[in-house]
Structure formats: C-alpha cells, structure tokens
Amino acid sequence: MTTIDTATITVELPDAFDPRWNRLPGIQVDGRRITIDPAEYFFRFESSTWLVADWELVKAQLLDVDETTESAVEQLALDFIKNHGESTSDAARVLATAYGVYSHLFREEHLAGLGLPQITADHLRMLREAATLMALNKVELDGHISNVGPCWFFPAATSVVFDLDGTTGGMLDEAYHGGWFNEHRRIESIKAHAALGGRLVHGCQSVPDQSGGVVAPYGASMANFREDLAEFKAGWIEQVYAHRVTAAE
User: Fold this and answer.
1) CA gap 168, 50 in Å, rounded
2) Which value, to the nearest 10 degrees, does the dihedral of the CA atoms of residues 151, 24, 140, 105 take?
3) Which segments of the chain are extended strands (E)?
4) Rounded CA gap, 170 and 154, in Å?
C-alpha cells in the first residue's frame, strides 16, 4: 500500500472565493484563504504530486507564440512543458497557478464572444473558482485517474455551491466546454494549460453526460481514462448532489 501526504492544503489567492464552497465536505473558504482536508474532500486521492510550470513564464514566453505549418500549438505546449515543467508536492502552488490560468481563460472580455448572452461576469467568477479547484484532480500517463474531487463533476459541484438550476448549470458547463467549439479559445486554452502540465480533456461530449474535465498529461491513455471514469462517476455525482441546499433549509 502506498502512503501519500494527506496534510491539510492551505492557500491564499488574490480574490475571495464564494463562502458557499463550505457546503462541500473537506473544504473551508474564508475570504481569500482556502483550506482543504484531502481525506474529506477527495473521493480518490492517490497522488500528492503535480506537474506545473511558472504561470508568469507561460505568459511571457508562450501565450503570444503562434503555431506554424511545422509546429502546431500542441507541439509548442508540449515542448514548453518538457523544458519548464516541474514536479511539485505543493498543492497550494498548483491552486495558485490554476487561479492565474483560469483568471486568464475566463476573463470578462470573452463574454461578447461566447454565444451565450445569459452568461454574466458573475458566472465567469464561478467558472474561475470551480476550475481552480479542479486542478487538483489528476490523471496518470497510463490513463488511471488518481485524484478525484467534487469539481470533477462540474455541473453538480456548481449547482450545489451556487444554487444553480439545471438550465443555468448546463449553460455554465457549455462555457466551460467552449474551447471545443471555438478554435481561437481552444488554442488559448492549450497554451494556458501548459502551466498545469498538460491539456484540458473532457470525459463527456456535452452537458447531459456530465463526465467532467481534468488537465491530463500529453500522452496519457484516453481509452483507459474513459474506462476508469465510467466505473465510478455515477455514484460520486450522486454524493455531490446530496449536499444541495433545499429551499426549506
């Protein structure tokens, strides 16, 4: 049996998170300070190391680089990760890096181009917060999913925390998926996710399937990933929804 570090994770981010994250087990939000108890928060926590690259370096050396006929954007990201990626056991660093990534990807200037007029700046804040916590999830090169937290199941987690109805939660998930449907945003996403050591992959086709997303390393087996995900997702989605607050409460 492998023993991993399950020490409490504490990080202070540039902006305050919604206090309703406290509805989920194992996470405490106090303004800009987030505290996570891995034993309570994760459904599966088998790895306490992550691959990251310095976000400031990504901004300076990768975000403005254009692909060519000889070097696609995915190759640019892969080469950057090979040259600048670092293994870290500092989960706070992962969360801080992720907050930089998602503050960039879900910035307000994108609102006009989303094709979702109902999405507001407040919805983008929800996306930034949920995606930041999602960065602690992890997929190994063999496709095995080693870390799974509530934010794997994006619509479920956001409905619990932000009191979203099904329609609004699904619409928010479409904004999260949006990189698949907009090449400009997909390219931007590939570059930005180099800071988290991989690329954003989705286990689902669209909202109803709710199989979530994770930053997976380049080269990870997607076939094994899908098989592993299919085995556990239904029960864990149900556990996330169990924390919804009813009107009576």
Assistant:
1) 32
2) 30
3) 9-12, 27-30, 33-36, 44-45, 50-52, 86-88, 138-139, 145-148, 199-202, 213-216
4) 9
CA distance 210 to 230: 11
Question: Can you give the length of the chain in residues?
Answer: 249
Phi, psi values for residue 28, rounded to 5°: -125, 125
What are the tens digits of pLDDT across the range 190-246? 999 999 999 998 765 555 555 667 999 999 999 999 888 888 878 888 888 888 876
**Mean pLDDT in the chain?**
88
Cα separation of the two ends of the chain: 42
Q: Which two tokens stand for residue 16?
A: 């305050």
Amino acid at 136: L
> What six digits make up the tokens of 144?
């095995």
Instruction: Please give the structure tokens belonging to residue 11.
Output: 């990080």
